[in-house]
Design brief:
GO terms for molecular function: dipeptide transmembrane transporter activity. About 60% of the residues lie in helices and about 0% in strands. It is mostly helical. Strands 1-3-2 form a three-stranded mixed sheet. The N terminus is likely disordered.
Amino acid sequence: MAGLQIDTDALAAIAHAEKNLAQDKSHSDYSHDQKYDPEAPVQDGIHDGLEFPTDEERITLRRVTDTIPWNSFLIAFIELVERFSYYGTTVVFTNYIQQPLPDGSRTGAGGRNGQSGALGKGQRASTGLTTFNQFWVYFIPLFGAYVADTYWGRYKTVCVSVGIALFGHVLLIISSVPGVIEHPDGSLACFIVALIIMGLGTGGFKPNTSPLVAEQYKKTRLFIRYTKSGEKVIVDPSLTTSSIYMYFYLFINIGALVGQIGMTYSEKYVGFWLAYMLPTALFLLCPIVLFYGRNRYICSPPTGSVLGRAIRVCNFAARGRWSWNPIKCYTQMKAPGFWDAAKPSMLAPGDRPAWMTYNDVWVDELRRGLAACKVFVWFPIYWLTYNQINNNLTSQAATMVTNGVPNDVLSNLDPLALIIFIPICDLFLYPGLRRLGFNFTPIKKMTLGFYTGAAAMAWAAVLQHYIYITNPCGYYVSTCSETSNLNVWIQTGSYVLIAFSEILASITSLEYAFTKAPKNMRSLVMSVCLFTTAVSAAIGEAFVSLSSDPLLVWNYGSMGVLSFVAGVLFWFTFKDLDAMEDQLNQIPAGGF
């Protein structure tokens, strides 16, 4: 990882100095004799006629967001429908796996005062399978991104993935219909096959809709605009991208909220077959909307895999810096000028390898993309806190007084809080901080997200302690027929804190993945961002042994401590990137 260190001097040179390059133009369509001047007029059909800020104006003028294009909302609606179908089904997985089929029931419905269930495999099995599902749906995006970047492009990959996911949804319905659900082993087998197929569909969908929604906005450079009051301001594309992802995440959580609330009541009063069928029916809107917008979306064509080329560039830059002494090796990899060695302009035309058909700026883009991937190193620890929502916290709710409310409906407090607070943050909090002169950068946001995730786990740990001491069965509440006298809505604190952590960490990570990645690596970098959830799920499997009585206080406490420590390490690891945010965002587009 030392070889990926970003060189401050080099980035400053990108933003403010001339690039006197001697590369033969047969190796690239980019002229290395040109200057990159952030104030120069641009004729590209996107920035034509815009006024660009001076260095002084970039420091002194207030920054604002641009108008979000309509196409972004159209793609966000597709994501809303897909998330309705995903969360609408997964929200009932814990009860479906953990709880037994109620006496006399053929659908799994528990009714007002009963507990819904089907397979009766216990809390550890439910936590294990739901954690596997988390791993699977966020591991497959690596392949979905590769297919999109190399062969199909994002739009076609999304369309094919929707068809695969629909087939998985059908199998999920079959696993829960009367006659099948009454045979736990057969139902479980069909259920697991459905999970695997749905994961394949989700894995192709997720890494490509996220960059596709932001690609609908094409401006990449800071430019001047005057407000209605006559104030001169800077329109910042990075802030616009941040706003796009805020509302993209809002649409995700509208879908999640409606899906989860509706399906928990369907499960409780009708049965699991309805909780799986309704999301499938709504998911059929996805291909319709995709077809409607087929000629409207701005899509980047597949450009071939850049992964092999990126590895070659890294190896070329590291020549002569390797050492068996780890300290010396780290120092040499981190030394200034690491990436300059891989730039074509640093080599005579006859010394360049045949594969070196890119330009200097693409090396800087690659460095920026790898920097984005580095930022995600600590995120698996953060996701450990979030992943408690749909397994252990759902099980915790079943041990308290619910007064007829389904125990798995409480998880909807998370998307509800997000729906409320996302517009508040985007319209009031973030602009207010900018007016006060506080630069709330992505690195600062993500750091605070780790801390709020830790606070959510601290709340859950304290609540679990009081559940143990107020329940008639003491430290074995999950197998007790009696519940604690605590009201289930006390869980609200955990869910609201997790929601705030998502606004700060999860949304910002999507924004960071998009803005820092080269255009032909966006799906790949986005998939790496999503893959951190898969890694977190794999780590979470190691904590499954804590997901049962009497160890649940230790489970939540461990998650909280890990998230807090990871937040501290995250800041100290990446605080240098925090000071270089503008330089990173202003690297021009390179090419081959």
